[in-house]
């Protein structure tokens, strides 16, 4: 509402409008309006209504497409035997002009469940494959204080051989190798490296602790390391095309 202003053409108009403006103001309410209570069972009715709605049925997947061009989500994902899959990779490599000696990777899905809702903890290990496909050799450090064992380690391709004097260099990152192996006699002196090396700390469980130095060196120099990712998946390379 526009308030009257003095100096208008109609004299005393502001005096005649004043009572009307005062009466136009809404009366003050000395109490608060009661809030509307929600109807009981309204949520249940909504849930029942959603249940009553029919879920649209999905079209069943077909096994094989009949045309060269098709929608992939209408068909089951094809699976092939190993020999057939490798043959397809070789064929695609020729068509795509890619590197002929590229690696072939595999995804392995494990069942990590145990009884009483327990699971196997993710782990890492090293396997010696019957046919080697990588040219590079892993660098392995051998812990021993026996001179004869040290000489055997050097003859079998150890990158670094030594005893307690290596601890300082490893803690300061002056020495970095792929794997660490040790003989049982020196293990009590390697405790300061437990937190540093973690899963690479020598242990019988990972076959990196023992007296057969040539066997350990062959496993970790030529072996393939793999680990469980995402609690149950192993993603690793297994060959070359």
From TrEMBL:
Pfam families linked to this entry: Ribosomal_L1 (PF00687)
Query: What keywords sit in the KW lines?
Result: Mitochondrion, Ribonucleoprotein, Ribosomal protein, Transit peptide
Q: Which InterPro entries match?
A: Ribosomal_uL1-like, Ribosomal_uL1/biogenesis, Ribosomal_uL1_3-a/b-sand
Question: Can you name a GO cellular component term?
Answer: ribonucleoprotein complex
Keyword Transmembrane found: no
Sequence segments annotated as region (Disordered): 31-58
Location of the protein in the cell: Mitochondrion
TM region positions: none
* Primary localization class, coarse: mitochondrion
Q: What protein family is recorded?
A: Belongs to the universal ribosomal protein uL1 family.
What is the protein name given in its UniProt record?
A: Large ribosomal subunit protein uL1m
**Gene name, please?**
Mrpl1
């Amino acid at each position: 509402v526009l308030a009257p202003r003095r100096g208008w053409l109609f004299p005393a108009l502001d005096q005649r409008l004043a009572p009307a403006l005062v009466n136009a103001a809404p009366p003050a309410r000395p109490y608060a309006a009661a809030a509307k209570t929600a109807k009981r069972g309204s949520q249940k009715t909504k849930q029942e209504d959603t249940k009553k709605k029919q879920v649209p049925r999905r079209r069943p997947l077909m096994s094989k497409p009949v045309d060269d061009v098709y929608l992939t989500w209408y068909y089951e994902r094809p699976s092939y035997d190993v020999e057939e899959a490798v043959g397809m990779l070789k064929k695609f490599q020729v068509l795509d002009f890619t590197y002929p000696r590229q690696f072939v990777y595999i995804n392995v899905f494990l069942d990590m469940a145990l009884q009483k809702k327990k699971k196997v903890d993710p782990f890492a290990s090293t396997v010696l494959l019957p046919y080697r496909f990588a040219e590079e050799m892993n660098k392995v450090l051998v812990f021993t204080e026996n001179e004869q064992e040290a000489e055997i380690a050097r003859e079998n391709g150890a990158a670094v051989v030594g005893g307690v004097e290596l601890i300082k260099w490893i803690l300061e990152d002056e020495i970095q190798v792929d794997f660490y192996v040790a003989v049982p006699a020196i293990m009590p002196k390697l405790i300061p490296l437990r937190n540093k090396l973690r899963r690479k700390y020598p242990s019988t469980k990972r076959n990196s602790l023992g007296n057969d130095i040539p066997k350990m060196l062959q496993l970790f120099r030529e072996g393939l390391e793999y680990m469980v990712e995402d609690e149950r998946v192993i993603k690793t390379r297994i060959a070359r095309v």
